[in-house]
Design brief:
By secondary structure, the protein is mainly α. Helix content is about 75%, strand content about 0%. Helix 2 (about 15-40) packs across helix 3 and helix 3 (about 50-65) runs antiparallel to helix 5 (about 80-85). About 15% of the residues are buried.
């Protein structure tokens, strides 16, 4: 079985432009789904998952066309592509995808926060305290000290 998620199997994707574009488009749909779910969550607006997914599909199609990703297919068959994706919508898979993306985003933010703390400690000549970031309580104390 081949993994055709965007960013995987680069050699195969380089040989088949349409497959690469399809992979990129599906990644875009997933990205838009996560972004919209977060927007509605922050706004405390109750929207069902299928409605979020439908809006994400529309946004992804428009962005893909604008960026020349499957432009010919999406321009001619926008309604059919939308219907196909919505028919195939799997709520469990959607929720799992949102969770995975949210977790990955959180990890990225925490890594960035930690790197910023390390840079500040070095900048302040406190390199000896770098070992303390391995202790959860000390890490929190340092975050608080630097208003992070």
């Amino acid at each position: 079985m081949l993994n055709i998620n965007y960013g995987c199997n680069r050699e195969l994707m380089e040989k088949c432009q349409k497959l690469m574009e399809y992979s990129k488009f599906i990644a875009l749909v997933r990205e838009k789904s996560v972004q919209l779910a977060e927007v509605y969550r922050k706004a405390m607006k109750a929207v069902n998952k299928k409605e979020i997914f439908a809006e994400a599909v529309e946004l992804a199609i428009n962005e893909a066309i604008r960026d020349n990703v499957l432009k010919d297919i999406l321009s001619k068959n926008k309604a059919e592509v939308t219907d196909m994706l919505l028919t195939e919508f799997d709520e469990k898979a959607y929720i799992e995808g949102v969770k995975k993306q949210s977790y990955a985003d959180g990890e990225e933010k925490m890594a960035e926060k930690l790197l910023n703390l390390i840079a500040k400690l070095k900048e302040d000549g406190r390199s000896e305290e770098l070992i303390k970031v391995t202790d959860k309580k000390e890490l929190e104390r340092l975050y608080n000290e630097y208003n992070m």
